[in-house]
């Protein structure tokens, strides 16, 4: 004869097992679906973020291009602007090393002037001509060129870069009398001359942006 009490106990236990198994399975399915949903959500958000970043990069590039093509870059006086650089023209005099130290103390990334092309050279020469120096006053300007590292190989101070452009005056560089530093030479309409670094001249500093 079947023991009904034992059968009911067995069925009850079996039912509890099935319910528990169902709950565990349902939780696993739910978690799996949540993971899938979260992954899809994160993927969508990453795609959106990537689009935003690419748009910002494009905007920054456009702004940089516009600045590089603009001649109205603003510099605080007494600095003078041209394209994306600021220039300082000194009134005092000193050796080449004195001018270097003064430039490096002026502002942030200020260094000796580096002239990159004919357009920049023309701007610098026109500006120093316009400073109203008396016909009886001599004023030459140190710039950042020097061949102190290797005789005859002129580089820009602070950049370790050979000249990609130059505008030497007649018979220059002559490399006479330890002429290791470059000036804008007034008697030759501010063309470049090499001279002794211990002479006293004014100097020109530049901040490149």
From TrEMBL:
Residues 1-26 form the signal peptide. Keywords: Disulfide bond, Signal. Residues 82-206 form the C-type lectin domain. SMART domains: CLECT. CDD domains: CLECT (cd00037). Coiled coil: none annotated. This is Perlucin-like protein. The keyword tRNA-binding does not apply. InterPro entries: C-type_lectin-like (IPR001304), C-type_lectin-like/link_sf (IPR016186), C-type_lectin/snaclec_domain (IPR050111), C-type_lectin_CS (IPR018378), CTDL_fold (IPR016187). It comes from the Eukaryota. The gene is LOC111111610.
């Amino acid at each position: 004869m079947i023991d009904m009490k034992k059968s009911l106990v067995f069925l009850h236990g079996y039912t509890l097992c099935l319910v528990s198994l169902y709950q565990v399975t349902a939780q696993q399915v739910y978690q799996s679906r949540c993971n899938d949903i979260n992954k899809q959500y994160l993927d969508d958000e990453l795609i959106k973020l990537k689009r935003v970043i690419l748009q910002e990069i494009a905007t920054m590039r456009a702004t940089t291009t516009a600045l590089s093509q603009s001649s109205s870059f603003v510099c605080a006086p007494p600095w003078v602007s041209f394209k994306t650089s600021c220039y300082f023209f000194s009134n005092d005099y000193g050796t080449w090393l004195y001018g270097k130290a003064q430039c490096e103390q002026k502002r942030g990334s200020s260094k000796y002037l580096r002239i990159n092309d004919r357009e920049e050279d023309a701007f610098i020469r026109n500006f120093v001509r316009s400073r109203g120096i008396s016909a009886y006053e001599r004023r030459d300007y140190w710039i950042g060129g020097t061949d102190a590292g290797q005789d005859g190989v002129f580089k820009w101070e602070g950049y370790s870069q050979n000249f990609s452009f130059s505008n030497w005056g007649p018979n220059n560089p002559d490399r006479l009398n330890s002429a290791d530093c470059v000036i804008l030479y007034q008697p030759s309409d501010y063309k470049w001359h090499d001279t002794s670094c211990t002479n006293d001249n004014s100097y020109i500093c530049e901040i490149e942006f």
